[in-house]
Each structure stands twice: as C-alpha cells, then as structure tokens.
Amino acid sequence: MDSGWWLRLGSVFRWPENGAGISKYYTQIHVGNPPKRYHLDIDTGSDLTWIQCDAPCTSCAKGAHPYYKPTRGNILSSKDSFCFDVQHNSKFGHCESCSQCDYEIEYADHSSYLGVLSRDDLHLVAINDSSINSRVIIGCAYDQQGILLNSLTKTDGILGLSRAKVSLPSQLSKEGIIDNVIGHCLTSDSVSGGYMFLGGDIVPQAKMSWVPMFNDASINYVAEVSKVTYGSKQLGFDRYKNGNGRIVFDSGSSYTYFTRQAYSGLLSMLKDISGDGFIQDASDTTLPIC
Predict the structure, then answer these.
(1) CB-side neighbour CA atoms (13 Å) of 183
(2) How far apart, in whole angstroms, are the C-alpha atoms of residue 157 and residue 175?
(3) In the annotation, is 201 catalytic?
(4) What is the sign, positive or negative, of the torsion defined by CA atoms of 22, 146, 253, 196?
(5) pLDDT: is 6 or 284 the higher one?
(6) Which pLDDT score is estimated for 246?
(7) What separation in angstroms does the CA of 138 have from each of 134, 228, 256, 257?
(8) pTM of the model
(9) Any bridge partners for residue 123, and if so which?
(10) From the candidates 80, 143, 179, 250, which is the catalytic residue?
(11) 284 by DSSP, 3-state: which?
C-alpha cells in the first residue's frame, strides 16, 4: 500500500451579479482513458464524486473543461451494489428493473441534479511521482438545477469525501490503495490554494491537535463539543447523552453555523453590549447585529 497520494488545491473567488461573494477550494483530477482533466470542488459533506457530463446534457453550466463522456461499457448496471447505496438515498429510491443506474441528489440549498453512475479510470500521482490507475465509481451529472448551476462556472463537479461507501476515500481504501485518511493544507494567499492528500503518509507530525471523531451511523465527520464561550460567558447548545454537543466538519460550507439555541444565546449577549457601537437591524432576522 502506498499511502501518500496528493492533489494540488486551487481557490476561486468571484462576485456574481447579486453581489454575494462565492469563495471555494477545488482540486484537479484526471479521469478516463486517455485521461482528461477536471476541476472539482472538495466537499466532505458529499458522498459521490460527480462530473458534468454529455449523456446528453439537459441542463449544465459552462464549466472549466469539456463535459465528461463515459463510454457505454462504463455505465453501471442497476444491480450493482454501489447503485443500491446511491439510489437508496435518492429521491426516487432503488430501481432494480432499470437497465442503468440513474439517480437524483438534492442538496440542503434545494439545488439538485440528475445523473447516471459510471465506473472509470482515476489517475493518481504519489508523493514520489509514481502514478496509479484505479477503477472508481463516478457520477455522470447531466441535469443541474438551482444555484448549483452558478457554482459550476470555474469547476466541473464535486469531489465526494464523506464517510459513505461510495465516496472516493472509501473506495480507494477498500482497494488497498490508501489508508482511509484525507486532509488538506491551505495557504494564506488566494492564488496557490494549498494541497490535499489521500492516505496517511503526508499527515504533519508536528504542531497538530487531534480531536476524536464521533463514531455513529452518520456519514459526516462529527466531533464532540464540550463548551462554546463568548468572552467569559458560556453559550447553551443541544447536548446529548454524555452531556456534550456535536459539530459537523464540512469543507463545502462557506460559513460556520450554530444551532438555534446557541445562536440565540450569542445574539442576546451581543445585545447586552450593543452600547459599544453595534448596529442593530430588526428587519434582518438572521443577522440582526453588525
């Protein structure tokens, strides 16, 4: 097992017409034979790695590269176990009588896409510059809806890094190609981005703080939280059986979110010291204090 595979990260920041800035990290992968390059958003909250594709494409953004087009022989059968896992979480459920594995995925922001599963070659480069090809499950996304279309102007899809069986790290770990370890090191500038690694050989050995992951049925990366403080005051939050709270690590989220209870407590504290010059706007219920 060679446990040191790395992918360079890039970063994108753009101002869409509505004035809301969108910032993201993406990485580059090579898929197919011969290999073709694609830029994918890194997302620990997504199960499936998918690329916009010509199947044909019903609704797609321009993207960074020409659409992915799997060969007919690479399209996955509905009887494949990976098909069952993906369709089980899909809007329409599993279709055993279908000839191919179509699915629909909807995100928390209500954007969605239709796709079909394929099995294709993924080309990886190790830290010693050696390379390896691995046959992995990839989503061929041919119909994007919602604000998902706006985020695909500089990228071609999403790199799914969750703990699900179909995620890229889980597939590579099952094949014995990597330890089931992922990480990313980010630079402070907006140009180089940093790098992402698959496997345990590139984990920094110094200046690291380790936090145990909560091991439950969730496919997300969940850690426990003992307390949250603002100044000297402690915020209340939802607690579980052991008295601690939980936090989800999601590389695909731009913001840090509190639960309603903790956020309400923070707002109350800010109102107590609002005489120090904070601006209050009661018309904005989500961000009432500047």
Answers:
(1) 15
(2) 24
(3) no
(4) negative
(5) 284
(6) 85
(7) 12, 39, 29, 30
(8) 0.83
(9) 30, 133
(10) 250
(11) coil
CA dist list (Å): 223 to 168, 226, 264: 21, 10, 22
Q: Report the alpha-carbon distance of residue 198 to residue 59 in Å, rounded.
A: 32
Residue 101 near residue 83 (C-beta atoms within 8 A): yes
Q: Identity (one letter) of the amino acid at 281?
A: D
Structure tokens at 214: 């909560």
* Residue 126 per-residue DSSP state: B
Tokens of 140: 């061929």
- For residue 52, give both structure tokens: 């916009």
Query: Of 43, 85, 156, 201, which residue is the catalytic one?
Result: 43
| Residue 285 near residue 263 (C-beta atoms within 8 A) | no
What is the per-residue pLDDT across 192-250, written as a single tens digit (0 to 9) for each?
678 888 888 778 778 888 888 887 667 889 988 888 887 778 877 777 767 788 888 88
CB 238 within 8 A of CB 259: yes
172 band by pLDDT with thresholds 50, 70 and 90: very high
The CB-based long-range contact list for 130-137 (8 Å cut-off, 24+ gap) reads 130/2, 132/2, 132/5, 132/177, 133/33, 134/171, 134/172, 134/175, 134/177, 136/49, 136/168, 136/171, 136/172, 137/48, 137/49, 137/76, 137/82, 137/166, 137/171
Q: Is residue 47 among the annotated active site residues?
A: no
- Residue 174's H or E segment, with its range, is helix 168-174
